[in-house]
């Protein structure tokens, strides 16, 4: 009977969703990675970091400026010669017009330019790692929600089956109540059980819809309430994970550890930038200009000059009061970055051990619950036969039904919990993107 009810429910559902696209976990992930706003933002930030890796941004290239200007001065000139003769000229207006190209180039700055370029490369790598962390978090979150949706739909089918059993029991009790085989108490109890199962079924519909909304939100769908037809009707767990392999992959490819390595490298480059002030610097200045001077009161009415100019500057900062303090602090920042990385590795080892223990326990629990489900199913079939023959009371029948539903709920919870542990282990080991394959 149960298979008959589930077949009808599945047929109705397939008929309603036949015109829709059928989603697998991989297609959900691919669509989400393409449309999800957080992923798109992280990719844009990664592109910004990549665009910043240029010789000009590091300070390797010269700067070339074109400038022009005009100035005028209105004055009154008073003169006195050695013989005591005095003269005065008012309304003198001097003018200056200039234009030119100026080239500035730092040839050497204590290896600061080379360090800046390496820093930009590290920031680009850090942007890639941050984007990877965002993608891995998204894949883990959507995968967990996908299987939560599968779990909620299975639970909905179980509750629908419970409603069908209660309805059939209520029909039998009503029929026997009319001929006097059952009391009114039996009838009322059967009706109460049917209403309770119906209430559970209605509440479960809300949970299914909530999970559907969350899935559509993660996939950045235009309508969060849009129906979603998925292929999976069971939660399949991977029971072949190995702790040693997971630990090895974690130490090699975990994105958070890679980010910590990048931060340590950046702290080292910050120290090198400060140490560049210990060296001399060499700067080149060159230009080509034109200047016109007009004089309001002078033996020469105007003067024009044009041509190139070249100069070089060699210098060194002898003392600025902060150099030693800043370098000491930079060394401490390097030590802190290394300690942070070690702390993170220890935390990840602890998380891996915790999830591995939970994963193994849930696998054992899953085997046990599978055996319990077989026993509960057989017990319910026997109880139904006895109930139809009148050898079993309604309360006893309800207990057999409840045992079956509880066994189904426990195995479903064990499957989902095992899957969550599996997802967490794959993410810690840096292998979460395997769900895209």
UniProtKB/TrEMBL annotation:
Residues 322-417 form a coiled coil. Its main location: membrane. Residues 1-19 form the signal peptide. Pfam families: OEP (PF02321). Keywords: Cell outer membrane, Coiled coil, Membrane, Signal, Transmembrane, Transmembrane beta strand, Transport. The keyword Transcription regulation does not apply. Belongs to the outer membrane factor (OMF) (TC 1.B.17) family. PANTHER family: OUTER MEMBRANE PROTEIN TOLC. This is TolC family protein. It comes from Alistipes hominis.
């Amino acid at each position: 009977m149960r298979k008959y009810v589930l077949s009808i429910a599945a047929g109705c559902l397939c008929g309603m969703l036949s015109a829709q696209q059928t989603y697998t976990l991989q297609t959900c992930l691919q669509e989400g990675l393409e449309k999800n706003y957080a992923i798109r933002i992280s990719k844009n930030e990664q592109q910004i970091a990549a665009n910043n890796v240029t010789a000009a941004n590091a300070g390797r290239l010269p700067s070339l400026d074109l400038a022009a200007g005009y100035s005028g001065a209105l004055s009154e000139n008073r003169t006195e010669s050695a013989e005591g003769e005095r003269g005065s000229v008012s309304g003198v207006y001097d003018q200056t017009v200039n234009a030119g190209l100026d080239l500035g180039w730092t040839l050497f700055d204590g290896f600061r330019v080379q360090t800046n370029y390496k820093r930009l490369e590290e920031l680009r790598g850090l942007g890639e790692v941050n984007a990877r962390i965002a993608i891995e978090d998204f894949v883990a979150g959507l995968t967990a929600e996908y299987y939560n949706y599968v779990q909620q739909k299975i639970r909905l089918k179980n509750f629908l089956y419970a409603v069908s059993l209660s309805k059939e029991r209520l029909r039998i009790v009503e029929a026997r109540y009319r001929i006097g085989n059952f009391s009114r108490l039996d009838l009322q109890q059967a009706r109460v059980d049917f209403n309770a199962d119906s209430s559970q079924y209605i509440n479960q519909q809300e949970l299914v819809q909530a999970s559907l909304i969350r899935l559509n939100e993660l996939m950045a769908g235009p309508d969060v309430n849009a129906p979603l037809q998925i292929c999976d009707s069971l939660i399949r767990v991977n029971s072949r994970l190995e702790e040693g392999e997971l630990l090895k992959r974690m130490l090699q490819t975990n994105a958070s550890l890679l980010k910590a390595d990048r931060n340590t490298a950046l702290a080292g480059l910050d120290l090198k930038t400060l140490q560049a002030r210990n060296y001399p610097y060499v700067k080149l200045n060159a230009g080509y200009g034109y200047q016109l001077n007009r004089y309001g009161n002078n033996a020469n009415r105007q003067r024009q000059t044009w041509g190139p100019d070249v100069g070089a500057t060699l210098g060194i900062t002898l003392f600025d009061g902060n150099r030693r303090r800043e370098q000491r602090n930079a060394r401490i920042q390097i030590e802190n970055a290394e300690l942070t990385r070690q702390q993170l590795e220890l935390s990840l080892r602890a998380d891996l051990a915790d999830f591995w223990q939970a994963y193994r326990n849930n696998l054992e629990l899953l085997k046990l619950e599978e055996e319990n489900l077989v026993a509960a199913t057989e017990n319910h079939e026997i109880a139904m036969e006895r109930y139809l023959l009148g050898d079993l009371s309604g309360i006893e029948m309800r207990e057999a039904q409840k045992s079956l539903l509880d066994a189904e709920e426990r195995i479903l919870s064990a499957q989902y919990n095992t899957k969550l542990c599996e997802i967490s282990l794959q993410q810690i080991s840096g292998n979460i993107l395997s769900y895209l394959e």
